[in-house]
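Box 3.1 A note on notation
Throughout this textbook, protein chains are presented in two layers. The first layer is the amino acid sequence; the second is a token string describing backbone geometry. Keep the layers aligned when reading.
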Amino acid sequence: MPLWCYAQLLMQNDKTTLRDLAIFPTDGSGGVFALIDCTTTQNGRDVLRKHVLQPPATLAALQQVQDVVQFWSRHLTSWPTIITNGTMVMLEKFFESADNTAMPPTGIAGAMAHLFQRLFNKREYFFTRFSLSHIADFLKGCTELKALTSHNELPALLRQELQLMQQELTHPLAAEIMAVTDRTPHPELSLLQYKARRILKNSIYRLMASYARLDAWQSMARATVARQWAFPILLAEEPVTFTATGIYHPLLSQPVSYDISLGAGRNFMLITGANMSGKTTFLRAMGIASLLAHLGMGVPAKTFSTSFMYGIITNMHAEDNILKGESYFFAEVQRMKQIAARLAEQRPHLALMDELFKGTNVHDACECTRAVASGLTGHPCHIMALSTHLYEVAQQFSNDSRILFYHFVTNISADGSYKFTYQLQEGISNDRIGYLILQQEGVLDLLNTRRNVK
């Protein structure tokens, strides 16, 4: 089995993180997965989804996948177009359908059987012809891929996969099926169908599995090229590094890009700014870029360098559990507990925390956020970012050289109007516009309107 499949439990992104980053949203919007899903078959889509859930477990395995994706990004025209999702569906239907056929008759009996099938059992007649043509198309497409083994710059992982396919294509029956045309007599098709079911079934299934893996790889390459994303530089775990220029959120139609640099000695970013100023979007951009980098594909940035991470964990939108009697605040605490457990592993993680402890009063939120921020400074081997609109918390740590302070700028006029710039600058913000938003949205006017009741 290729190295890239050994994900095990080392680099796993949990459901909460995937939800916070909108990888597989349930609202029908498509999310990030829709951006990278350029697969041509459902089998390939299933492999790609599994790859997102369980990325490569080691830097070496990740680099192998990246090499393959980069190769495909330069040779997308080599991807066979003869194989479609309908081809794969037909193959599965063919091999899973009931088969009560004895050895097909030959000679005069075979000719009579052919005539009988064509006149009285048209459905079976056309199924035989149609299914054999799809098997032939699939084998031809795999043969096209096999031809890439002669390429000088073929990555080791891709060569390994293609050599597996080549072994399956050496059977003489494969060549006979690929020679099938519209003029191939029905008796010959029946005989080939009979042999294919009994001789090639397992081989075809192995080829389908290989093709699905290749489909997932070319999909990541195709998405990278189509969206003009940059391939990241993948670095060793130590020293911990997370550097990007022009990083942006790929789901926005008009995104703002940012330059950031975190590393050993300054691995913790504390972000302040008003509500809706861009803090959450920025954190998500960091998380999405890291996730895509750890899939081996390009990322939405001009340049991106990252140490190999053993996981991404977020705390953005906790959910209460009424059935368990758990409050929103308790859910936030439990999620923070999970993050703390990950950070205690001493293996690099990316931890993204947004507006912690929203489920309690301002005093408690300040105290809890301050305690968490203090604890985070004691974990130098991770990349961490915490956003808060509680500027008092940031002010308390303003002299800590281990923390990078950034804020989102909001332009507030003398008349009380405001404008979000979504620009990220160094320093701490003390912008407070919650009351202004409440006022400008007309909420207070509505509440103060008295209606005459007759």
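Residues 186-226 form the longest helix (41 residues). The chain has two domains: 3-226, 233-448.
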